[in-house]
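Worked example

This section walks through a single chain of length 93. The input is the sequence exactly as stored; nothing has been trimmed or padded.
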Amino acid sequence: METAFAKEMKFEAERKQRRTVLFPIRLDDAVMRMEGAWVADIRRTRHIGDFREWKSHDKYREAFGRLLRDLKAGEKGERKIARGEKDKGGMAT
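Given that input, the structure is written out below as tokens.
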């Protein structure tokens, strides 16, 4: 398990690069039991892919599909930033 410092470094990288770097997944209930500002921030702001039932083919495919969509969405956002595209509000996306 990563340290709080390592998580903060990833958040900082996201802020600087204006892209999502951290895509959390859940293999057990640890993230829901943990305390701390960084883990509360993750629970509050991120979709946490639920892979607790990874042995179930259907549940795994559902969780993996969502993770893949999230990764692709992050990749599209990176391309928009690289091209300097703006969103509807005039902000770089």
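What to look for: The chain has one domain: 4-8+19-83.
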